[in-house]
Every structure is written in C-alpha cells, then in structure tokens.
Write a structure and sequence with these properties.
The protein is an alpha/beta fold and 250 residues long. The protein has 7 helices and 9 strands. The strands form 2 sheets. Strands 4-8-7-5-9 form a 5-stranded mixed barrel. A 3-stranded antiparallel beta sheet has the order 1-2-3. The radius of gyration is 18 Å and the shape is globular. Bound molecules: S-adenosyl-L-homocysteine (SAH). The site of S-adenosyl-L-homocysteine has 18 residues, from strand 4, strand 8, strand 9 and helix 7.
Length: 250
C-alpha cells in the first residue's frame, strides 16, 4: 500500500509487527511490517491441515519535504523493486498490490467493493510516437486468480493507473478503451517492477470513490477511507489464507 491509513487495519488485523529497522534500507523511506498468517486448508478428501504464509507489508513511507504519504507510481515502483531485491530469505513468490481505488459504476463498482485485478495499464502516459504509444500505456495481465476471486466473493476487472487523483477527458478515453473497472495511482508501477524481477503480481483494490459518479474523488475518498480500508483488510486476510500452502499457479 502507498498510504499508512490503508495499511494499518491490515497490519493490526493480521497481527504483523513493524520491522525496526525497516527491511528496506535507507535512504528508501519505506516502513515495513512482517509476520506469518496461518490458515487451515482442506484437500480434496476434506482433510484439513494447517498451513501458513510469510508476509511482508511494504509502505512507501512519508515524503520528507511535504510530510504526507508517498503515493503514485514512482514510490510504488521503487519500493517494489527494492523489496524484490532485498527480501531474499525467503525469496518473494508473489506480490499483492493492495490499496484503495476509484471504481467505475458502469463496471459494477460500489463503495467498499474489493476488486481483484485482471490487468494493468497507464491512462496518463500519452506518447504518440511509433511503438512509444504502447510503451506508454504498458498494458499487462495480472497473475490470473479466478478461483481466489470467486472463493472470496471479489469482483474482478482491469485496474488503470495514473499519477492524478482526478482525471480529464483524455484519461477517461484511455480508461474506457481499456475497460477499466478501477482507477488507482500505483498498480502500474508495481507491475513494471514485478516484470523486471519476473515475480507474479495480484492487486486487491478497495473502492473509496466512484469515478463516473459526478462527485469529486477527494470528498468521497476521505468519507469512505475507513470503510474501504476495513474491506481491504478482510479481502487481504482471505487472500493470504487462500494462498497459504498453495503454489502460485493454484
Ligand atoms: N487526499 C488524500 C490522498 C488521496 S490519494 C489524502 O489526504 O491523503 C488516493 C490514494 O488512493 C492513492 O494512493 C490511489 O492509489 C488511491 N485512490 C483512491 N481513489 C482514487 C481515484 N479515484 N483515482 C486514483 N487513485 C485513487
């Protein structure tokens, strides 16, 4: 997550501990948390066995100039790259980009829904030069997780990323043509860093505001942040329990 407000219900709910010092060394501004999440999974014959998964939560920390959380694609890509270089014992099997997002009512999104990403793209990197247009959009697929989404009752759809909380007509044209279900400010940066390291990526995005609802995102965002962060916590716990004891392709 970019913002600590989004991360705190997850951290306390999962019983994770703050790493001191952080697991990503300075000058990276990260705050990190870690621990084990357990679940009891059952096999085909209904035998249940306890399994657990080791979890590291990486937040992008605060801006030392402006004092606010470091949000957007640049901190997200940097923290992901560093986490995948630094966390090697054990190696990271799976990244989950977890946070809040604007949702498209036209794609079935409502406040507090958690979406499991099917794909990533940028809607604010317009480069009308041969080959650079696709580079700018940088469309990629999420690691497919249809059974997890179904088991947890999550909605699914493409995430579109840009470095602004608001949007204008050219952003909207790009989001519409890509079929975006949710709009955030980090997922594409995380996706790029994961692709460099060859590590699979899922994203869970909890809806704080409705992009196509006519209200300013910042008002709805603040009013719904607590609800959406709690929904994110529930989904993330479910996701971690679902993946515990399974291979990534399961
Ligand atoms: N004004 C807020 C900052 C909001 S930034 C504050 O005072 O802290 C919003 C964060 O939530 C970003 O990290 C982004 O990924 C996500 N987000 C929520 N709704 C969004 C939307 N409609 N568009 C883009 N990002 C959104």
């Amino acid at each position: 997550p970019a913002m600590e407000a989004e991360a705190l219900p997850v951290i306390s709910g999962l019983g994770l501990k703050r790493d001191s010092p952080p697991s990503l060394p300075p000058p990276a501004p990260a705050t990190t948390f870690s621990g084990r999440v357990s679940s009891s999974s059952s096999d085909d014959k209904g035998n249940s066995s306890p399994s657990s998964v080791e979890v590291s939560v990486v937040c992008s920390g605060k801006c030392k100039v402006h004092g606010v959380d470091n949000i957007g694609t640049v901190p997200a890509a940097l923290m992901t790259y560093l986490a995948l270089s630094e966390l090697r014992d054990p190696r990271v099997d799976l990244v989950i980009s977890a946070g809040t997002a604007g949702g498209f009512a036209a794609r079935g999104a409502a406040i507090g829904d958690v979406f499991c990403a099917t794909a990533f793209a940028n809607h604010d990197r317009r480069i009308p030069l041969a080959k650079f247009d696709d580079y700018g959009t940088w469309r990629s697929d999420a690691h497919p997780a249809p059974r997890m989404a179904a088991a947890l009752g999550l909605k699914s759809g493409p995430v579109s990323t840009g470095n602004s909380l608001d949007w204008h007509d050219l952003d909207m044209a790009s989001m519409s043509s890509g079929g975006a279900a949710v709009k955030d400010m980090e997922a594409s940066g995380v996706a790029w860093a994961c692709s460099l390291h060859g590590v699979p990526l899922l994203a869970l995005k909890s809806v704080t505001d409705i992009v196509d609802g006519g209200k300013p995102a910042e008002e709805e965002f603040l009013a719904n942040l607590a609800t959406a962060s709690e929904a994110l916590h529930v989904a993330l716990r479910g996701a971690l329990e679902f993946v515990a004891g399974k291979g990534v392709d399961e």
